[in-house]
Design a protein that fits this description.
Two copies of one chain form a homodimer. Chain A is of the alpha/beta class. Chain A contains 15 helices and 13 strands. In chain A, strands 3, 4, 5, 6 and 7 form a five-stranded antiparallel β-sheet that branches. In chain A, helix 11 (270-280) runs parallel beside helix 13 (303-323) and helix 12 runs antiparallel to helix 13 (303-323). The interface between A and B is medium-sized, with 39 and 25 residues. Strand 2 (43-44) of chain A pairs parallel with strand 13 of chain B.
């Protein structure tokens, strides 16, 4: 949601430009302020930021993204497993990356994944691999075995035209060296398996980019999180189309609702999400609804799309407010980070935060925006402050001291 | 810069009283807020405060002021050296301090320093001394040798009429006891050497206060700072007339520009400083400009002088803004602490902070003041937040997480 003022748009941000009557109503009647997802100026990844918003200090709990993705993709993980985010990609004979997403391949990836999943690693004894495709060109890899480490570098060079990276031990440990060797062998074998795959031969004959390699990044182990229930005395559920958020919710012991139409993409079914909230509120007292679309518009640098996704998200807010009584329930609305359209990447800006509900002082702001939030009645808080504030408003927090 | 409202001046602060059109322009167009140099209510020394503003947490990195002064005075220090701030002072035969600054002696101090530098300590084997005069009555002492400690108390009683202190071990360690013994012997020997010095005989005959002893305080070792470049990916330079700030900059790996006219006193050449900024901006992308004068006026309890120094500092800001394009560069303006004229000492108040530059939301404040800052769009941040915020605005920060 959060952005910076744009000179080409009368120095307005997408949120200031968007027509968001429901969010504005919430902001006017509630606590309004700025939230630093981690700390002022710190530029967070979505994994770290959402961890903080759920009340878990990333400095204490963050163990990489890969395992959250793998959990969210439905794989079972044990504490000794190391998991990776993966892309099907296109490389030339010199392992130079032609397309990091293999022409944004959508069809047949589960067949390719099956072939990759069959890879056996010979060079590193006692390590098995599990591989699964998720959405489009995305997939997850799990290395399973003794003496593995998440301290290995990425194979994905994150830019086209570069050669693929060689996984390296980041801390010099034997475990990390073993893991890096396993990753490098896996990537090499994925190329051997995929370049001969019939589906790629079809793609080549149709002049489509071939998915002839798997690139790994974001090594991670499952974080050891005290349960959300034990921390905040709340029975929680989560509505999201994003595998990482699902995995994070699972690691925290939240239920994950399976909502058809919650895609985690720029087009998502906001009405289906709103219905799921109403459904979820029957037997849960905490519901996390994650909307990915404005972040995608920010990454794409698309001002109009960002305005549109915010207006669509506003309709979701409106649906929920129509059905879930704001006179009885608390409703917090925020971003996990800013993705300004002028930058196309996450920045370290504070983001607006609104908390509405019973007995909450009204900010009397006329509109929800970065600017009104910077002068709001909540002041400037941090990501890990949100759950304690909500728990306190809900009357469920424990007294510190006596 | 920062102060408190004064009943004798229509409840205005010096900053509210001063005519500061350039600072006001910067505040209006930029982020405006409050900054706690260390934490709310914490009353910081300039060393600790400037360390925090440069992004180094004093709780982690602070090792006393003496070594920063010595580095800034041009002495080479090794990690085992312990350095002290010193004053030439006047004591009577009972070692009672008549004048902590020996009549603010200005002439001949390098000759006196040469005599003091020749002192050899006999009572503590393996400890050598290096002594150098700096500005006016000020000097630095370095104790060099094995098994020394900075945990020793000050000899300077910091008030006139009191007897000089005896350096004591603050932590009971053998190293601290050894260091205290060396300090006490040095101070005693300095008195022996100085009271007979011809220059003091001349001063006595001219009824000037004699500089007949050296008083030590602020024991310190060089802090082990990760380089500013490694922390923030910035090539930095520093413009200051204050030895401690020079030393801090050097410890952080910043270049220190030699600017004639930057005196670190109440009269400094603001135009020379502005020219140095423009010069420095050619091959550096971070420039720290330190202005000492308003702090001196605060210590002197001189409202008019503080207003005048703020107006002079405003002209420096104006010079820089005329030459360095604020549409392309970021400009942060703050204080390292408040020195209210009604108190004559540092206080723990938050200080105004302004950040101007591309894509920064405008506070629309009509004037820079403590009061407008307390309602600004940046909210309330801490000293160590400043560099992460600037690094993020500059697009040079690393992503935390993925």
């Amino acid at each position: 949601m959060a952005d910076r003022p744009l000179i080409d748009h009368d120095y307005k941000t997408p949120l200031e430009y968007a027509n968001t009557p429901n969010m504005d109503r919430l902001a006017k009647a509630g606590l309004l302020g700025q939230l630093d997802p981690v700390a002022p100026g710190v530029r967070p990844g979505s994994d770290v930021a959402n961890m903080a918003l759920l009340g878990y200090d990333p400095a204490k709990y963050y163990t990489g993204r890969g395992a959250l993705e793998a959990l969210g993709a439905g794989l079972n993980l044990s504490p000794s497993d190391v998991a990776f985010r993966c892309n099907f990609a296109t490389v030339d004979d010199d392992f130079r990356v032609e397309d990091r997403r293999a022409g944004r391949i959508r069809k047949g990836t589960s067949k390719l994944a099956k072939a990759v999943d069959a890879i056996r690693i010979d060079g590193v004894p006692g390590v098995k691999t599990v591989f699964k495709s998720t959405v489009d060109h995305r997939a997850v890899l799990v290395l399973r075995g003794e003496k593995l480490s998440r301290m290995v570098s990425d194979v994905d060079p994150k830019e086209e035209g570069s050669k693929i990276g060689i996984a390296k031990a980041l801390d010099g440990s034997e475990e990390a060296k073993r893991t890096a060797a396993a990753v490098n062998e896996f990537v090499k074998r994925s190329h051997e398996v995929l370049r001969e795959h019939p589906l790629n031969q079809d793609r080549a004959s149709e002049k489509e980019k071939v998915a002839n390699i798997v690139l790994t990044r974001g090594a991670g182990t499952i974080p050891t999180l005290p349960s959300f229930k034990s921390m905040f005395d709340l029975r929680g559920t989560c509505i999201t189309g994003t595998a990482m958020i699902k995995g994070l919710a699972m690691a925290a012991g939240l239920e994950v609702m399976d909502v058809r139409g919650a895609t985690g993409s720029i087009r998502t079914d906001y009405e289906a999400k709103a219905k799921a909230v109403i459904e979820g509120s029957r037997d849960k007292n905490f519901i996390l609804v994650h909307v990915k679309a404005p972040d995608i518009a920010g990454h794409d640098g698309d001002f109009k799309a960002k305005v549109r996704t915010l207006e669509e998200a506003d309709s979701l807010v409106g649906h929920i407010m129509d059905e879930v009584d704001i006179g009885l329930n608390y409703f917090a609305l925020t971003s996990d980070h800013a993705t300004p359209v002028g930058y196309g990447t996450h920045t370290g800006d504070p983001v607006p935060i609104v908390i509405g509900g019973p007995d909450v002082p009204a900010s009397r702001a006329l509109k929800l925006s970065e600017s009104t939030a910077s002068r709001g009645n909540l002041g400037r808080i941090r990501g890990t402050d949100l759950m304690p504030i909500l728990t306190d408003l809900l009357g469920r927090s424990r007294l510190y001291g006596s």
